[in-house]
Amino acid sequence: MVAKRIIPCLDVKDGQTVKGIRFQGLRSVGDAVELGAKYAADGADELVYLDISASQEGRRTFTALVSAISARIDIPFTVGGGIGSLADAARLLEAGADKVSVNSAALRDPSLIDAIASHFGSQFVVVAIDAKTVDGRWMATTHGGSRPTDRELFEWAKEAQERGAGEILFTSMDHDGTKKGYPCETFARLCDSLSIPVIASGGAGSAEDIAAVLTDGKADAALAASIFHYGETTIRQLKDDLASRGIPVRILPQYGNA
């Protein structure tokens, strides 16, 4: 059975990992390279770094940071934020990222997915979808859930897959930051409709929440930030808990399990 992945997410501004609520009230929670190295040593399967800088100078700083991360960390990592062209993706992949994540730019121009997948391969492309319920339908949004679009979650994810996406990262904006669990029925429906992996995001408050989305929700991986950044649990503790529930996870050998 394929192991489920645990993926810490690090929002980055000016080289520092920051945390807030929908990018408001940001405060530093540590150096982006050092925190990533800590999570890798603790058993993270992958990392996601999101550049939330608004300026071109911030983008250049992030590119240099990606090179530093690549030199230090030996697990796969995905980068996203502000990727609007093939050239943007190429710059970050050439700096050492293993995958790029596209969101708003792909909604504006879906051919961006085709371009990156054709040039680099589907395994390099993650399409992030931030969706919320509107009149009973899950609709994709941009700008932290504040701007609606006319794209429905399931049809947009299917199109992204057909255009060459290698993974879908779905964040429920209705649940993000609530720490009250994921919409598992929605995740299960999404996973059943696709042949590529789905990463679950939005709502993680406990190991039980993550276990639920990896089983009932059928997600291939769970993304989380606050519970790791603020020491509510460690990746080692989380994986031990998941393993005790019979969920297949990769446990580092030095922790006594193969």
**What is the overall number of helices?**
10
Radius of gyration from the CA trace? 17 Å
Order of helices and strands: EEEHEHEHEHHEEEHEHEHEHH
How is the CATH topology named? Answer: TIM Barrel
Q: Which range does the strand content fall in?
A: 25-35%
Biggest sheet descriptor: 8 strands, parallel, barrel
Name the structural class: alpha/beta
CATH class assignment: Alpha Beta
Can you tell me the CATH superfamily? Aldolase class I
Instruction: Detail the poorly predicted runs.
Output: none
Q: What value does the average pLDDT take?
A: 91
Gross morphology is globular
Distance between the termini: 14 Å
| Helix fraction bin | 25-40%
Number of self-contained structural domains: 1
Q: How many β-strand stretches?
A: 12
Q: Which sequence of strands runs across the widest sheet?
A: 1-4-5-6-7-10-11-12
CATH architecture: Alpha-Beta Barrel
